Structure formats: structure tokens, C-alpha cells
Amino acid sequence: MADIELFTANFSPFGQRVRLALLEKGIDFWHTEIDLANKPEWFLVISPTGEVPVIRHEDRFVSDSTVILEYLEDVYPQPALRPRDPGKRAQMRFWMEYADEKLFPAIVRAIRSEGEGRVPAAAKLRDNLIFVEREGLARCSRGPYWLGQELSILDLVYYPFFERLPAIESGQPGGLPLLSIRLRYWLDAMRERPSVQATQNSAEAHARAFTQYLGVRQPRRRVGNVEYLHA
Question: Is residue 95 helix, strand or coil?
């Protein structure tokens, strides 16, 4: 029997974080898909907020993707995805919070924006991406990953958002998003991970998911590749 039961939705970036961690750690898990448009009543019992992901481990349920990631580190410490150094651990938690409190809302606004609201929404997302690159990746590490040569929780927190950027770009003017060479270096390293390859979806699939779950219109332009800037 699987050690973990994961309740999630295939297109949830937060659920993808947890799937990535489970695969990286080699933890046997059972995946229970939740229809976000028609959540079963029993799911609201184990997830009072009605949000995915949730995991069941032994006799307990754990909610919230970042809480789950740290919980997995506590109960399955090897292979470690959380740095031992207190300074790097503090950096990790700061940037995890930035991802959820700043970057994710900017992504949602960019997806949902229409008409005259598209330009400021795109500009805000671009500002967040520049901040992530300059103050985050460029300062935290010279290695391929956020905190150096080794993969960490922080990489798993950010990757799902970047996987969805080509789908966001398809509905935005001006070629959004524009990624620097440092972000591209990191993204290329992530795409080589077997866990990423096992969980990824196409840009077209993400664009359809935006329509289904966020109530946005289908993109008017063909979904293309992310454009990169060399900084």
C-alpha cells in the first residue's frame, strides 16, 4: 500500500509541487484526482478551505503545498531537499513566501486581464520576474538551482509557475514573458529532471485549464515558446 495519498488536480501548480517532491524523494504515493469545478463533499471534510493539494499520511491529513513540502522533509529526511545551513534555509522560506504572495497573484492577474487591463497586468508580472531573477536566483546561487548545485524545495515551488508562462504569453501583448539568461539556465536544468518530465503538461493544455478553472477566454493567439532575453 502507498505511503502517501495525494489529493490534487492535475493542472494545479501547487499540487505539481508536491508531486515533484514525492517523485524526487522516491516516495510511493496514490494520486486521487479532485474535480475543482465539482468538489465532492467528502473532500471538504479533509480540506476545510476546499483547496488542493492535501495529503494523507498515516492517520493525519496535511494541507497547503508549502506546509506539505516541509512536512515531507520532516518525515522523509532523505534525500534532503531542505538545506541544512540556517542562512540558506531562511532564504528558502523568504522566496517561498514571495512565490505565493507576490508572483502567483501577478500571474493570475495577467491571465485574467482583458482590454486596457492587459498592459499594466503584463508590466506587473514582468517586474516580478525581473525581481525574482536579480534578487533571487542571481544572489542566492551560481549553480543551476536556486540554492546552488543541489535541488531544493525552492526549485519545486517555482517551477510549476514557469511551466505555465508560455500559456500566459499566448494571451498577452508585447511578447510576455521575457526571461533573462539566468532564469533560462535554471529552467533548462529543471526540465532535465525526470520528476519534471513525469508531471509536465503542454502550454496548450495549460491554456485550456485557465479557461476551465479561472473563467478566462481561450487565447486568441497560438501558444508559442517563451522568449528569452540575454542579460
Answer: helix
* CATH fold group of domain 4-75: Glutaredoxin (3.40.30)
Three-state SS at 103: helix
CB 82 within 8 A of CB 148: no
Question: Which residue, among 181, 171, 185, has the nearest Cα to 224 in the 3D structure?
Answer: 171
Amino acid at 147: L
Q: What is the pLDDT of residues 71-92, one digit of tens each?
A: 999 999 999 999 999 999 999 9
Amino acid residing at 172: Q
User: Mind listing the pLDDT tens digit for each residue in 188-231?
Assistant: 999 999 999 999 998 888 888 887 766 544 443 333 333 333 22
Give the relative orientation of helices 104-112 and 118-131 as an angle to the nearest 10 degrees.
160
**In this structure, which topology does domain 86-228 adopt according to CATH?**
Glutathione S-transferase Yfyf (Class Pi); Chain A, domain 2 (1.20.1050)
Domain with CATH 1.20.1050.10 in the chain: 86-228
Count helices and strands in the chain by DSSP H and E runs: 12, 6
